[in-house]
Amino acid sequence: MFGKQANKAALMVVAIGFVVMFVSGGSRHAIGLVLKPMAEGFGWERSDLGGAVALFLVITALCMYFSGYLADRISVRAVLGGGFLVSAFGIGLMALVSEPWHAYLLYGVAFAAGNGVASVIPIGVMVSRQFPDKVGTANSVAISGMGLGQLMIISALTGVLIATGWDSVFLWLGLINLLMVPVILWLIREKPSASGQQSGLVGEGLSLREAMKTHHFWLLTGMYAFCGFHDFFASTHVVAFALDQGVSPLLAGNLLAFMGLAGLIGVISAGAWSDRFGPVSATLICHTVRVAVFALILLNKDTLSVIAFALIFGFTFWITAPLAVVFVRNAFGARHVGTISGLITCIHHMCGGLGAWLGAASYDSTGKYDIAFIVMLVTANAAVLLTVSLRAGDRQPTTVS
Questions:
Q1: How many domains does the chain have?
Q2: Residue-number span of the structural domain to which 321 is assigned
Q3: pTM, entire model
Q4: Which among 132, 168, 270, 372 is most buried, taking Cβ atoms within 10 Å?
Q5: pLDDT in tens, 273-300
């Protein structure tokens, strides 16, 4: 799969990235599993937790930018280890919440900061240094851990939720994140002073300020903004939406898990496709499929359609994640790939927070998600247009006058 670059050290980097994304990705989507029982148990509105998710995504986004900045300059080992330590504190103490502001502080700030640091950005930087010619495939395999983590962790936590309640879900997540700290410190071996020069692949490239003067940067950022808007609306609300349509709690909880399995297939396929045909075509397929599934669920909300929506959307869920590094390196060079891709991913997640909040606000005001689905359909079409524009400017990004 990786060709001649697949030496032992390089494969270990991919394996480490996979494990990090397995835990980080599985942990971040657990809030969708407990959204309905938590809100009903405390007598809260869904927008109370939707607001915490929105804050989570804003803080995560900001921390992703800084984690990319730090990954370009210092030890990835320190960045990831510190991130998991903070994550464990934030998500574990969620078991003790009793007021909405507790969720805002612990999930929306503490867990968000740790999860944003221990994220796809430092993994992308680490992997891209080892696989200059197969970065799409290698990064996709590493990031596919998010899909498998979502499948296995959410499936296990669905059983925990049914057996012992939502508070146990958070206790287990805290323990899992805490155990990642010694794993990171043991497996990642690097010299901090050399992290920015590893494999001699940093090379030349535009700075963030220079990249922001190009039209290509803003097309790319806009496309990722819409992508995040859809991603976190779906992951936050798909279980609650399925329950509203009469889907059984066990099946509804496992829908979120099997979205992860579908995403695993999608992300690995997209990475291999990107290495062969470029990242634009894989991204165009992603957004075109989303147009179709948002239209489907607006037309039909029976159980079969809900399942189809979850699985097909799930297939697209991780497609653009490994491609951010590819887009940035192709357009702006490798020297500041962590910083530039970190900022783009930051905006992606901030707009994801808006999507999560919109879903909750739509439901609270109308008792259903139809308005949110209409907005998602419109913005999915806009994402298609932006991706087509990226294809037109893919080779020579033009400068903003």
A1: 1
A2: 3-197+207-392
A3: 0.77
A4: 270
A5: 888 888 999 999 999 999 999 999 999 9
